Amino acid sequence: MSTSTADNSPHHPAAVSPDQVDTSLPTEDGPCLDTVQLAQLEHSFRRWVDDTPRRDVRLARRRILLVFLLIRYTGAKLNEILQLDPFTDIDGQTVCIRDCETEETCTRTVVIAEALGREIGTTLLDPDFRRTLANRFAVDPAFVRRKFYERAEACGFPKHLGGPEMIRRARAVELVRGNMPLPAVQKLLGHATPSLTAAQVSFSEEELGQVTRLFIERESSRKTSARNSFFGKIVAIEPGDVQARITLVNLGGHRVASIITRESLDRLGLRPGRLITAEVKAPWIVLHRGQTLSGCSADNRLLGEIVRINHGAVSSEYVVRLDDHTELCALTSTSDGDGAGLAVGQQVWAVFNGFAVILHADD
Known about the structure:
Elements: H1 18-24, H2 35-50, H3 55-74, H4 78-82, E1 90-91, E2 94-98, E3 106-111, H5 114-125, H6 127-132, H7 141-154, H8 164-177, H9 182-189, H10 205-223, E4 229-239, E5 243-250, E6 255-261, H11 262-268, E7 275-280, E8 286-289, E9 300-311, E10 315-321, E11 327-333, E12 347-352, E13 357-361
Antiparallel strand pairs: 1-2, 2-3, 4-5, 4-7, 5-6, 7-13, 8-12, 9-10, 9-12, 10-11
């Protein structure tokens, strides 16, 4: 099986000191995809997999998607992923990264989110897909890179930002900026000598594992966009005399506007580019039928499909799924008939005002 040596270039040293990590972190305008852009790239890969009627092509593309997901969420090098045995090295929520030379010693075990572990497990159960992995990930690294570049360009990004090395680097930056302790980041990336005092606190191996697992699960839960919760990046702030309008773009590309006081704006330290979570309470969401929405002045209007309806004696719950699989829950009084005519499978607009959106800034 051929492997790539490009991942071992000087741009990826074996060990990185705290100073090196800090100075190598890109600015917000630097050459590195951020969390929202990484999510857009992931969506592009998923659409690409489904965008063919041929099952053999779809299976081949799914293999490339799996390689992307493993690099994206483990921060591993391309050659480390290509030498994995997916049937023995991926076990639930852990991925065993082996020594690139011997392919025998498990040099580190990387934790992945439970949801990703389930997805990979389900994929590997497909008999046809299992046959495509008869020789493991026996894929030409140059071919993998081309597909990564194509997906980056499809998203409108410079193609080099979508390369495996840059995805690995983007993952490292994402973890550091997400406040994962530096020693845990170093350990996850496989640096030879993690600096356990870099964060001015001592971590045991067990504690590093616990920190990593808790961080990954917390990250995963917010990225799956829990109902009525949007995690994204602030793209605009329009301050007024008393209030300010904050607009964020979530991981699925949806824009959500919130109106808060100037005092809250200053207290939260909000600025364009900052990652933030927006939540809206179910009773504030109103559903409108139809493909178009005219005569509505609400700040937020999101098109989705009703996937579940739960009628109660007092109130009824309508669950609407957007195109990025974000689910919104709207509550109406059962007695007032607001939900008359709504049915599962129907397209509706979920409408809510900016005053109903609460912002939670990550520390």
